[in-house]
Amino acid sequence: MAFTLELTPAHHELVRRAHTFAEEVIRPAAAKYDQLQECPWDIVDAAAREGFYSPLFYADMIADPSGLSLPLYLEEIFWGCAGIGLTLVLPALALSALNQAGTPEQLAKWAPEMFGEPGDIKLAALAVSEPQGGSDVANLQTRAVRDGDDWVLNGTKIWIGNGGIADVTIVNAVVDPELGTKGQAMFLVPKGTPGMDQVRRLDKLGHRASHTAELSFVDCRIPGDQLLGGADKLEHKLEKARRGEGRSAALGTFEQTRPMVAAMALGVARAAFEYACDYASRREAFGGPVIENQGVAFPLVDIAAEIDAARLLCWRASWMAANGVPFHLGEGSMSKLKASEVAVRAAEQAVQVCGGWGYVSDLPVEKWYRDAKLYTIFEGTSEIQRMVIGRTLATEASQTPQHHQLPGDHGGLSRKFGHGSLARARAGEVFMKLAQKAPDRLLELGGRLASPGR
User: Fold this and answer.
1) For 280, which of 17, 51, 64, 252 is 20 to 30 Å away at the CA?
2) Which of 379, 383, 429, 444 is catalytic?
3) What tens digit of pLDDT does each residue of 315-369 get?
4) What is the pLDDT of residues 149-192, one digit of tens each?
5) Is 379 a catalytic residue?
């Protein structure tokens, strides 16, 4: 499918429904759950009743060939509240890993266990990060050792959204240390499995409505059918890795989810930006609204442009992911890098515009300021995103302009007779020569035909 910025009626309806839910259900509860630092079970249940919380909902959005359904939805939900939004979305990250690495049978069995249904809500978690590794997926220490038909997990995971309260946790572990990221596998660990324990719930700066924990695995025994993809697929993958082929399942998941994180950051950026503009329009000082002062208006102008630029990067990366277009220059990382950093700048500027009121909890901008910072850290820090993009520069950036690498129709009549073609240029030259001898009325008609469209 060709990349287009034209939204379908279904897209517009999705945005309307998501924005209404964010405005009427999420925002009124945002401050409460930010203070309580508790999972917003009632909001999750309400989302399920609205059709926003189920594996089929996310599968349907991911299946959109335009790639735009998911970022459109996420921007609106996170405009409501980043912490509540993250609680709603975390099972989708685990679902993405299950979909990518699991078998169809595993997907059918475990996807419903990750979401539940209205009145019986369930949660899922994706456990990758570790205390010593952070964004360095190659430095994981959690080990999975085969024991008969089972596997035994030992290690520690941290920064795990829904960790300890999830009904299903997908755990990334090393099965062959010599193969680095290619020697890893993912395991399905149901809630209550002996050996998996919540060490502590983390007290965070922002996203406080999202439960985040440290988990430990001590001789945690996992049945063989809970290895994502199964034993035969894992052995095949390890053999390819020993030949220098293949890829990491965790890294593949991150490639797909980075545009999703970019859309989340855009929701926070837009919330802060809109509030700052509205406040600056209403707040009067020195004889008029403060937005009439260039010192206030110009930074907001820059943020407006940066939000739009980041959104376009996000939409392009989402379209590429949906259509299987390779990220030659780290386009997924580009989208997350720019969206996360503009979210921080937008929230900081909102605090600045509101002055002392922006620094206290009377206004929501201090919460957005706390929430925004996470996006430059999780799912790969800004430094990691720059490393991912930087590694492509020597081999890819000098080949052709980036947009020339995108797919398209490279043949057909338009190649020879389309806009900008040599044939059209020659025809134009002939027309100009004829025009010098043509009557005025005929010349006027020809001019209208040759004029660029308006």
Assistant:
1) 17
2) 379
3) 999 999 999 888 888 999 999 999 999 999 999 999 999 999 999 999 999 999 9
4) 999 999 999 999 999 999 999 999 999 999 988 999 999 999 99
5) yes
User: CB of 281 within 8 A of CB of 353?
Assistant: no
Q: What would the 3-class secondary structure string for 420-433 be? A: CCHHHHHHHHHHHH
Residues 187, 171 contacting (CB under 8 angstroms): yes
Fold of 122-243: Butyryl-CoA Dehydrogenase, subunit A; domain 2 (2.40.110)
Q: Compute the distance between CA of residue 309 and CA of residue 383 in angstroms, rounded to an integer.
A: 20
CATH code, residues 248-400: 1.20.140.10
For residue 447, CA distances in Å to 422, 428, 430, 435, 450 come to 20, 11, 14, 9, 5
CA dihedral 229, 115, 379, 227 (to 10 degrees): -20
Can you tell me whether residue 123 is helix, strand or coil? coil
pLDDT > 90 in the chain, percent:
72
Give residue for tokens 């979401």: 115
Delimiting residues of CATH 1.20.140.10 domain(s) in the chain: 248-400
